[in-house]
Amino acid sequence: MRLFKRQPVRSPVNAYFSKYQQSITQGVQISGRKSGYIPHPLDLSHLTGKKIFIGYRGEALPSVYDLRPKGRVSPVKDQGLAGTCWIFATYGSLESCLLPEEKWDFSENNMKNLLAEECPQGYDRPFDGGGNQWMSTAYLSRWSGPVLEKNDPYDPFQGNCDVFPARKHIRRVVFIPPRKSPTDNTNLKTAIMNSGAVFTAMAYDDGYYNEETTSYYSSEGFPNHVVNLVGWDDNYSRKKFKTRPPGDGAFIVKNSWGQNWGDKGYFNISYYDFFLGMENALFSRTENPKSAQIIHQYDPLGWIASYGFQSDTAWFSNIFEAETNQNITGFGFYTASPYSSYNIYVYENVTAGKPRSGRLTKSFKGTIDEPSYYVRNFSSPVRVKQGKKFSLVVELTTPAYDYPIPCEVRLEGISSKAKSSPGQGYISDNGKTWDDIYALAEDASICLKAFAELK
To answer: Is residue 227 within a helix (H) or strand (E), and if so which, with residue range?
Structure first.
């Protein structure tokens, strides 16, 4: 194995995360509550203004739309004094996307707790601390949840590391591109209309909130809160805001401050709000867990940074060992660009340190339409015997983004518990010669999961 003849490059850090580290705004109070949104290290600004959801564009978007009368919004909850708005917005999106066919009440408390620094697979945050969509995606994608509210009721002041059965397995989380302008709302509207409530961050300040009209517009600030977008009104008058924005139009917002706040827990935010639509996610697809399912993974803290070889195409692989006789049924990884293309290969009986050794048992190609956490099942499983090593190998092209390899890395202030070992993850610029990512960073792991069922 060579040692990085062509040196991989790590992706830039989100400017808002850098500012957060400098100011440590997590403890700031907003409307009597703890600030709940922590900017993530990932910088996906290359997505700004990119159009996605092209397959849904056959139907014109109406000027007014609201999920509530359609029975597609779960009840408003109250996060209390904790900085957990991001968890309520995560489940506000997931529960909405399952409605009206399925009605669920998922436990915010369990995610709040298991992602805390006091727990083995937690981030650098206290039980009542802030977070973001990448953290909640990591919790869901590693199958820690969602769990039922009745199994782990919400308590903003207390924490533990109790584990309960996951009631769904996440299959898709779409990271909706940042808006390029106040009228660049097609992605957000299409997501709401065709899937459900959208997770979005905002910069909240009581001074910009109009209590009489339950409306909000700000032209400055720092992202500190997360809400759900559940509808819109293109004609909502600019005169209803405390400070008048340049034009009409507003999104309908579901908050997590209880039904006694705002308009029964809702308010309107101007299209012209300066941070609206910059950090968005849609927790859109799930599947029901099956008995005797197995997940192989090295990235419990999820996507923290990316690597590349100064090209939008790169190779990455994880080598796993089957602890029992099992069938490999699918895989999951992240992609940072719309219309990414991939080739995936499964090898069995691989030699340690050689991801493409052994016998090739599965290969196919695919396209991922949206930047997302992406799961796909094999049409026919791959049988692996107990004690044998197998590998997943991915060639991924992320258009206009030169860091195709998604990784968990150790980063003080957010993911100091990240760790890895030699012989797990490998990267390559050509798919022929490979380097152990442990040689690049002793705390780095490839975000590539394999799913299996017992034979």
So the answer is: strand 225-233
In a domain, 126, yes or no: yes
Domain that includes residue 314, residue range:
290-454
Nearest-angstrom CA–CA distance, 397 and 154: 41
Q: Report the alpha-carbon distance of residue 412 to residue 278 in Å, rounded.
A: 24
Average pLDDT of the residues of the chain: 94
Q: Please give the single-letter amino acid code of residue 273.
A: D
List, for residues 163-173, the tens digit of each pLDDT value. Answer: 999 999 999 99
Is residue 371 in a domain?
yes
Kindly report, residue by residue over 394-427, the tens digit of the pLDDT: 999 999 999 999 999 999 889 999 999 999 999 9
Report the amino acid identity of residue 321. E
Q: Report the distance separating Cα 98 and Cα 340, nearest Å.
A: 26
Kindly state whether residue 179 falls inside one of the protein's structural domains.
yes
Q: Virtual CA dihedral for 181, 183, 186, 187, nearest 10 degrees?
A: 30
What's the rounded Cα separation, in Å, for the pair 52 and 430?
29
Please tell me the distance from the alpha carbon of residue 175 to that of residue 334, in angstroms, as a whole number. 10
The two structure tokens encoding residue 75 = 């009840």
Quick one: which of 109, 96, 135, 105 has its CA closest to 285? Answer: 96
Q: How far is CA 18 from the centre of its chain?
A: 20
Note whether 306 and 157 are same-domain residues: no
Task: Please report how many Cα atoms fall inside a 13 Å half-sphere around the Cα of residue 133, on the Cβ side.
Answer: 29
CATH number at residue 268: 3.90.70.10
Measured distance CA(36)–CA(29) in Å, rounded = 9
pTM across the whole model: 0.96
35 and 166 belong to one structural domain: yes
**For residue 105, with 0-12 CB atoms within 10 Å meaning exposed, 13-18 middle and 19 or more buried, which class applies?**
middle
